[in-house]
C-alpha cells in the first residue's frame, strides 16, 4: 500500500491486519466460492497474498456518485473491507487516500511506473468526451487523457458499476457531457465490466482475486461481463418467481398483492431481461438487501440497453422463458402412466415453449394490465 493510504484510520488498519490465519483462509475460500471456483482456489488466493503477491490497484473516479466505493466498503460479511485492504494494494483511490493534489498524482504515477504491465486499473464512473473532455478534469488533465494513459500501462482493466461499464446515469438522454463507458473509450482493449448501480462488491473481488492469483480473467459475455456472475437472468433465480408462474402480480405499490410479496412484473420489473446475480448474492451480506428483496422492481442496472434508457415502470419481454415450478404429479398410481402424466412429460420436454405460453397467457388474460409496450433488451 502506498504511504498515502497507510494513513487510513488506525482502527481500519488494525482490523485488516488482525485477521487470524483460520479466518483469513475461510474468507478466501468464501471469495473463491462466490466466483464458482473450488476451495483449492481459496487456498491459492491466501498463499498468493502470503507470498506478497498483492496486486497494485489504481482506482480512477470520474463522473460518478461514489456508490460503488460505498458498496464495497459497507459490506458486513466478515470484514470484507478489511479483506480488500489485505488482499490488494490500493495505491490510488481519491475517496480513500489521505494525500491530495499534486502529491496524490505523483504517487499514482510512481505506482503505475513501478507496476507497469501488472497493476489492475479500476474505473468508477463515466468518462465525458464532449467539449474535448473538459467536463471532468483532475489535476489539470482531462479524465479521458488520464484513462488512456493508465490503460496503456495496466495489466488488467475493470470498469466497475453501470456508469463505468456503459455510461450509466451521466450518459442518460440528452447526455450533455458526451459521457460514455470505459470500454467505449478504450475500444480494442479488453475491459472487464462489472455493471450494477452499485456494482456487487463480490463480483469485483472475485475478478480481481482471479487475476491476482492466476494471472487470468474470467470468461466474459458480449458486454464484457464475467459469465459466472452475469450468465443468468434475475428472473431465473427470483424468490418471487413462483408468484409469476402462478399468475399472482402486484398491480400497484402498496396493494394487497404487493404486501403479499407477489411478482413485480406489472410494476415494471426488468428481471426477465436483466443478467445479474443480485438475487443470489445480496448486498452487504444482508438478507434481502437488493431491490426486489425490499419490494421494488428490478431496474435493469446491469444491462446497457435498460437502465437509464427504458422508463422505470415500463414492462419488458421475457427472455429465455422457463416452465413454471408447479406441474401436476408426474407419477401415476399403480405404476401406470396416466394420460395426464403423459401430457405433463410432453410439457417438460417442450419446457421452453410451455413456459413462454404460460407467461403470455397469464399476462394477457388480465384486461386491466397497464404499462408501456414491452421492450427487448439487446
Ligand atoms: Fe422476480 Fe421480477 Fe421475475 Fe417477478 S418479473 S419473478 S419480481 S424477476
Give an overview in words.
There is one protein chain. The chain has two domains: 54-229, NADH:ubiquinone oxidoreductase-like, 20kDa subunit (Rossmann fold, 3-Layer(aba) Sandwich), CATH 3.40.50; 232-329, Cytochrome-c3 Hydrogenase, Chain A, domain 2 (Irregular), CATH 4.10.480. β5 (137-138) and β6 form a beta hairpin. It has helices spanning 10-17, 21-34, 39-50, 67-73, 80-87, 101-114, 143-153, 162-166, 182-185, 201-214, 227-230, 241-246, 256-259, 339-349, 351-364; strands at 56-61, 89-93, 120-124, 127-128, 137-138, 141-142, 156-160, 179-180, 192-194. It is an alpha/beta fold and 378 residues long. The longest helix has 14 residues, at 21-34. The model is unreliable at 1-17, 338-360 and 366-378 (pLDDT under 50). α1 crosses α5, α3 crosses α10 (201-214) and α14 (339-349) packs across α15 (351-364). The protein is 36% helix and 8% strand. The chain starts with 9 loop residues before the first helix and ends in a 14-residue tail after the last helix. The strands form three sheets. The protein has a five-stranded parallel beta sheet with strand order 2-1-3-7-9, sandwiched between helices. It is built from 15 helices and nine strands. The chain binds iron/sulfur cluster. Iron/sulfur cluster binds at residues 234-235, 238, 240-241, 244, 263-265, 269, 271-272, 292, 298. Iron/sulfur cluster (SF4) binds at residues 234-235, 238, 240-241, 244, 263-265, 269, 271-272, 292, 298.
Amino acid at each position: 500500500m502506498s504511504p498515502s493510504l497507510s494513513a487510513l484510520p488506525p482502527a481500519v488498519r488494525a482490523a485488516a491486519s488482525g485477521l487470524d490465519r483460520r479466518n483469513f483462509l475461510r474468507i478466501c475460500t468464501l471469495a473463491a466460492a462466490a466466483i464458482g471456483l473450488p476451495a483449492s482456489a481459496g487456498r491459492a488466493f491466501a498463499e498468493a497474498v502470503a507470498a506478497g503477491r498483492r496486486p497494485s490497484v489504481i482506482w480512477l473516479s470520474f463522473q460518478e456518485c461514489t456508490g460503488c466505493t460505498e458498496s464495497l466498503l459497507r459490506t458486513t460479511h466478515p470484514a470484507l473491507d478489511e479483506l480488500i485492504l489485505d488482499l490488494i494494494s490500493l495505491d490510488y483511490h481519491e475517496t480513500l487516500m489521505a494525500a491530495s493534489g499534486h502529491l496524490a498524482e505523483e504517487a499514482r504515477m510512481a505506482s503505475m511506473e513501478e507496476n507497469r504491465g501488472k497493476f489492475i486499473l479500476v474505473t468508477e464512473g463515466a468518462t465525458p468526451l464532449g467539449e474535448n473532455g473538459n467536463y471532468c478534469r483532475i489535476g489539470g488533465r482531462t479524465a479521458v487523457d488520464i484513462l488512456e494513459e493508465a490503460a496503456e500501462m495496466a495489466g488488467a482493466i475493470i470498469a466497475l458499476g453501470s456508469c463505468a461499464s456503459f455510461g450509466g446515469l451521466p450518459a442518460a438522454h440528452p447526455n450533455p457531457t458526451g459521457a460514455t463507458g470505459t470500454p467505449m473509450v478504450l475500444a480494442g482493449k479488453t475491459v472487464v465490466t462489472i455493471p450494477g448501480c452499485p456494482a456487487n462488491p463480490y463480483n469485483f473481488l472475485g475478478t480481481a482475486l482471479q487475476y491476482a492469483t492466476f494471472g487470468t480473467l474470467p470468461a466474459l459475455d458480449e458486454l464484457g461481463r464475467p459469465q459466472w456472475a452475469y450468465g443468468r437472468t434475475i428472473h431465473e433465480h427470483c424468490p418471487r418467481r413462483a408468484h409469476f408462474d402462478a399468475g399472482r402480480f402486484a398491480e400497484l405499490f402498496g396493494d394487497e398483492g404487493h404486501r403479499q410479496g407477489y411478482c413485480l412484473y406489472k410494476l415494471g420489473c426488468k428481471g426477465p431481461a436483466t443478467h445479474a446475480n443480485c438475487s443470489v448474492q445480496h448486498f452487504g451480506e444482508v438478507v434481502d438487501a437488493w431491490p426486489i428483496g425490499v419490494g421494488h422492481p428490478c431496474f435493469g442496472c446491469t444491462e446497457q440497453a435498460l437502465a437509464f434508457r427504458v422508463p422505470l415502470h415500463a414492462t419488458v419481454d421475457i427472455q429465455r422463458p422457463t416452465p413454471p415450478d408447479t406441474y401436476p404429479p408426474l407419477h401415476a398410481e399403480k405404476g401406470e402412466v396416466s394420460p395426464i402424466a403423459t401430457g405433463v412429460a410432453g410439457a417438460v420436454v417442450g419446457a421452453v415453449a410451455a413456459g413462454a405460453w404460460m407467461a403470455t397467457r397469464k399476462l394477457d388474460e388480465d384486461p386491466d394490465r397497464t404499462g408501456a409496450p414491452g421492450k427487448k433488451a439487446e
